[in-house]
Design goal:
By secondary structure, this protein is an alpha+beta fold. It is built from three helices and ten strands; from the N terminus they run αβββββββαβββα.
Amino acid sequence: MTPEDRALLLDLLTRQRVLALAVLVDGAPSSGLLPFAVLPDFSAALVHASRLARHTAGLIGGAPFSLLIHQPDDGQADPLQLARVTLEGAVEPLERQTAAYEAARHIYLAKFPAAAQTFTLGDFNLYRLPFMRGRFVAGFGRIYNLISDTFKSLAHS
């Protein structure tokens, strides 16, 4: 991966604010748009979701997920040239009042301080979405398969 494309991938993971999440609910695909924060070691995304949302029914431990993060479409360029990354893994719900939950909560609130109010609501929970594999499209002909070692190397950028 070129240094420019690496910087573009880092930008997608750190500067974008929402991701499209796809999960299975009752055997059928379900998707949602969620704010996210990425762990400092680039191993996973954190989402804070309400049980009232249909897609949250698919956020059970070990369930597969796919997520998409992309550049905003400003209407100026070919939308197929927007940089985007698709990541896959298995859901890890975080149990409240554990060290892992509190660490994740701190990271999430650092990016979204206004979300503090939703942490007081009983229907919201934090979920860790570990990056097991993925595909990064930086532009035409600039496509990369991502593996766990790729994410580890991003932390050392």
